[in-house]
Amino acid sequence: MFVTKTTDGRDIDTSIAALEGEAAQQQARQADRHAAESAPAPWDAVPAIAGRDLTYYDRPLLKKPVWGIDIPLYYFVGGAAGAALTLGAAIQLVTSRRAREMRRLSAVCHWTGIVGSTVGAALLIHDLGRPARFLYMMRVFRPTSPMNMGVWILSGAAPAAITTGLLLNRGGLLGWIGEAAGYVSGIFGAALAGYTGVLVSNTAIPIWQAPRAWMPVLFTASGASAAASIVDIFAKDEAACRVTRIFGTAGRAIEVAAAQKVARAASVIPRVGKPFQEGGTAILWKAATGLTAASLVLSLLPGNSRKKARIAGLLGAAGSLCMRVAVHYISEVSALDARASFHQQRA
Predict the structure, then answer these.
(1) Half-sphere exposure of 129 (CA within 13 A, CB side)
(2) Above pLDDT 70, what percent of the chain?
(3) CATH entry 2.60.40.10 includes domain 70-342
(4) pTM higher than 0.85, yes or no?
(5) How do the domains of the chain map onto residue ranges?
């Protein structure tokens, strides 16, 4: 018989221990939903041992990630924003201030980065639950923590991008400040586009251990594909369209190749790579690869019509978004697969 007991989650007996410290007076307003979801169901029978494929009573070694849908959406908009800022800085570097159409494209890239980084910050804070928690992570600077570095990268990218968007292409001292801020935002943007791949693979989840070297490549390329797709909608000049087409085509080609590398590396141990082969996660992953590949093929076809470019852009953006959502749900499935963890350790 199982008895359910509700506590405050800390279970400190104040008769024998003092409740002191920074969080001593915090009160839980509701039950921990994530803990309830991740807790295994009570046993009603002793699990059977199947051959030599032993686990700890089929209990997962890990808890699934507690992140909600906000995080894969943050991966998408943050990656697109970072890649757009990098593209904008590159255009600044190779064009003179008199090349108006190209400088206008650079401004569009920076404003795309401004909107994306702002939306990304809102999604990240919403997932954290309280804005103060975002600020708490800035109390330290820890290069060994991808999550901590991500907060600093986002905090640097957004102000630099806003400064660039407001001052770029102006005359005098303000114009030069905007020019310098554009290069700074491009550096932060490159880090913003790829650090989430490091964050995902820097975990104990079995499926991301073998392909961890390819995850930053995949996320960066996917961000470039999404950024080119979004910016291309606003680009009207032929020279500007040519730039976004080249940038997006390169991003899509690398994304398709990196996705194949990730799936192949993870599937060296068949049980670990199972989410790439079966179930809804496999459908999501294959849909992402298929959409990106279709966008790549369409962008390589002869012709420079705006309709073709917009369709290729929509397919590329959809493929990038599907990939981020697939990574999110693959992480959950892999974490809860007890045999995946054991197979990987035995190998």
Answers:
(1) 5
(2) 86
(3) no
(4) no
(5) 70-342
